[in-house]
Design a protein that fits this description.
The complex is a heterodimer of chains A (220) and B (299). Chain A is mostly helical. Chain A contains ten helices and three strands. In chain A, helix 1 packs antiparallel against helix 3 and helix 9 crosses helix 10. The chains are: A mainly alpha (220), B alpha+beta (299).
Chain lengths: 220, 299
């Protein structure tokens, strides 16, 4: 799809295609299940979550499979978005000015493209976090088949898995906060796919400029 | 079952206090294995299978006396045979009865996330409660002795119970009862320790084993199964008995600092985000966007 086709009548613009939205929710739902069951295994004070979700045995059995689905979705996202997630000079400037971003002074921010530097960090955080979780998760899935001589793998996995999970939980909380509360309209964009022109202009001026310029250019 | 709850002093994956802590006064029990008088008859292996109704499993013949390479989920007691050549050229045929060591500070229990799947009774016996086991296998990683084994079909982990059912009735474990040479003893930890030290001293003073000693590793808080070894300075020669076993550092790191750090970060993060919203609110009001919402035509 060319950028020009993203502009929808009535001042809206397509931000996420159906493919992107579906992938997002496959990752999203599987991650929430992983988070809940993972928390149950993390602390006895959260074990009640596993009880609600069908018991400890069921949670233990399904958690790895949900993990595969999640990592599959993340890898698919890598295919879709890796090119757009490259770190640019604008991103460097964005991080320098991040205190303005976090205090809602968005007019003082350098013009972000389709993804701002924070979103790119989220993407790469989940990508590398997902890889670590997958590698350590495979070991934790079948600890009985890791021989005594290779037990250092189990020792490594048992610390890498929760550490990487905690890292992604931090990303996840900020992601939820931004999408549900801070940036009104962002949640709609991942459900319906579109955002208002005002949204595009306010949060992603670089992207806004690009799509309006292309839309204005005569078609060949 | 209610009796057992009253006798629990440590419990895995449990929120809050331990149900049976300080409710009963009991001796810490211990099994003493004198490897210097073991003849490798395997009577203890058979007695274990008989008392615990374990099925006859396939043995693995490797041209030695070894029944199978290691314990199994339904074979909890295994004598390890090792040929060792001493520095003076003498050949020693070492036999060590291997089973759960019933650590005072059990790594399996520390690693277990399932409520009450692993308990330590007030007498020191570490026991798995398969009904509560979720089959994660963390105990396998937590154990410094490679003892817990998973049933691949039911995904439950099993190991030696130190015949907790017999002990609670005042009987000795089945293996002890079967030993024909008297190399196995059972009693209070203090008594067994005394007996073991006396035997080790005898070996040092009268039997030309200057390094004889008692294996009761402090790294796991001492064990409920102690060995008398001809050479306590080199336990590895007895089929890989670890010299200084301890709960793996990564399990300690995970259950200790990482847990605190993670909990503080997660709860602090939630509070931080909430306060941030109260202070700064949304980046822009929804009304501003509503003005330009389309009538229909979704994509």
């Amino acid at each position: 799809m060319s950028q020009a086709e993203q502009i929808i009548p009535h001042g809206h613009v397509l931000r996420y295609t159906l493919r992107e939205r579906l992938t997002h929710w496959v990752a999203g739902f599987s991650y929430v299940y992983l988070l809940l069951t993972g928390l149950a295994f993390w602390s006895p004070w959260c074990f009640w979550i596993a009880v609600i979700l069908g018991g400890g045995q069921v949670s233990r059995m399904l958690h790895p499979w949900a993990g595969l689905i999640f990592v599959g979705a993340v890898l698919y996202m890598y295919g879709m978005w890796a090119g757009q997630m490259r770190y640019t000079d604008i991103d460097k400037a964005w991080w320098k000015a991040v205190r303005y971003y976090s205090t809602n002074q968005d007019d003082k921010m350098p013009p972000a493209g389709r993804y701002n530097a924070g979103q790119k960090f989220l993407f790469w955080g989940f990508f590398w976090g997902g890889i670590l979780l997958l590698l350590s998760g495979v070991v934790l899935w079948f600890p009985e088949y890791i021989s005594w001589n290779l037990r250092f793998l189990r020792y490594l996995a048992i610390i890498v898995h929760p550490a990487a999970a905690l890292f992604t939980i931090g990303l996840f909380m900020i992601h939820l906060y931004m999408g549900l509360f801070a940036e009104r309209g962002a949640f709609g964009s991942v459900i319906r796919g579109d955002v208002s022109m005002a949204f595009a202009k306010r949060y992603h001026p670089g992207w806004y400029q690009e799509i309006t310029r292309q839309a204005a250019a005569p078609r060949k | 079952m209610s009796q057992a709850t009253l006798r629990v002093q440590k419990i895995s994956g449990h929120a809050g206090g331990v149900p049976g802590k300080d409710t009963q006064r009991e001796y810490t029990v211990s099994k003493l294995i004198d490897t210097t008088t073991c003849i490798g008859c395997k009577a203890c292996e058979v007695a274990c299978m008989e008392w615990n109704d374990l099925p006859f499993g396939q043995t693995v013949f490797d041209n030695t006396y070894q029944t199978m390479p290691e314990t199994r989920w339904n074979y909890w007691n295994l004598i390890l045979f090792n040929e060792h050549e001493r520095e003076d050229g003498a050949l020693m045929w070492l036999m060590r009865k291997n089973q759960c060591m019933h650590c005072a500070d059990p790594g399996c229990l520390a690693a277990c996330p399932a409520d009450g799947a692993i308990v330590q009774y007030t007498n020191g016996i570490v026991d798995f409660q398969q009904a509560n086991c979720i089959g994660c296998g963390y105990c396998i990683t937590g154990c410094p002795f490679d003892i817990p084994k998973m049933n691949p079909e039911t995904h439950r982990v099993f190991k030696c119970t130190l015949c907790a059912d017999r002990v609670s009735e005042g009987l000795e474990p089945a293996c002890i009862k079967s030993c024909p040479t008297g190399c196995l003893h059972f009693g209070s930890k203090d008594d067994m320790k005394e007996l073991a030290e006396a035997r080790a001293k005898q070996l040092r003073d009268h039997s030309n084993f200057p390094h004889a000693g008692v294996y009761d590793p402090p790294g796991v808080g001492g064990t409920g199964v102690i060995y008398v070894l001809h050479d306590a300075s080199n336990p590895e020669i007895y089929g890989g008995l670890p010299k200084n076993p301890h709960v793996p550092w990564s399990v300690k790191l995970w259950k200790g600092p990482l847990k605190w750090l993670g909990n503080v970060a997660m709860i602090g993060g939630l509070i931080g985000l909430f306060v941030h919203y109260l202070r700064y609110g949304p980046k822009a009001r929804e009304e501003e966007d509503l003005a330009s919402r389309p009538e229909g035509g979704r994509t």
